[in-house]
Amino acid sequence: MLVLSRQRNESIMIGDNIIITVVDIRGDKVRLGIEAPSEVPVHRKEVYEAIKRENLRAAQLDPADAQHLVEGGKTSPPGAANASL
User: Fold this and answer.
1) Potential cystine with 77: which of 56, 57, 64, 68 (Cβ 3.0-4.6 Å)?
2) What is the rounded distance in angstroms from the CA atom of residue 20 to the CA atom of residue 11?
3) Are the beta carbons of 68 and 75 closer than 8 angstroms?
4) How far is 47 from 52, CA to CA, in rounded Å?
5) What is the full DSSP assignment across 55-66?
């Protein structure tokens, strides 16, 4: 891990097209501004991990269950009890 010291309004470059700037420092919090191309996703780590977990969960979804979601729940999902009388 590279550790750098920066003051307010100072920046670091990642490659040729990502700029991280220290916008504000208040107590133990640092506000960063990030300029990156739109094709480069930028997320807080906890959001990135939540997206990753959700993608893994979706990848494990049974195709029959996915079809049920696409149909808008018009039929009972596989294994559900038939409620018609």
Assistant:
1) 68
2) 5
3) yes
4) 9
5) HHHHHTS-HHHH
